[in-house]
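Study the following:
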Amino acid sequence: MIGRVTKSYVRNNSVRNSYNRGTTIHGVHYLRVSRNTYYNIMGHTIFVEDAAETKNLIEYNVVAGTKPSFSLLNTDQTPGCFWITHPDNIFVGNRAAGSTNYGYWMDYQDTAMGPSFNPSIKPIKAKLGEFRNNVAHSVGNYGLRIFHGHEPPTIAYYEDHLSYKCGKNGIMGGELGKVVFRNVTVASNGQYGL
């Protein structure tokens, strides 16, 4: 929880058979998580933890085989390849495959939580950094889910996204404000596309 880390990165790694997540982004800003491969991970694989973390660049990662954990947080029982609690981060060119539940779980919070608790940080009302050119397939529930909603101050474009062969929906959201899904493709999902 050291704050601004502009010179730090997690890059070109392979993480497999982990019993406790893949990469946790906790209390930092401007971290680069780039070109990593994750396989057979228990709990959320790439995990933005306290909803205070912003300006992190998560790009060109491949996550496959995310499984439940019953010894971490309650949310890890229904894990996401990517679990994101604050929208002001950059997600570009990532691939999520084979999670028991979620590809991208945008679980935006009302306030920052945990050790970073701060009632003046309002993720659910924050701007979107970037969400572009991401893919989710063969996940148990949702390819992309904006769970509590997103009410950004300016238009948030979730764009160039592909969700297919998801157990429920390709994209799912509720209580959305200025949110635009642009150039998205949803196909062969169990219930609905969008």
About this structure: The chain is about 0% helix and 40% strand.
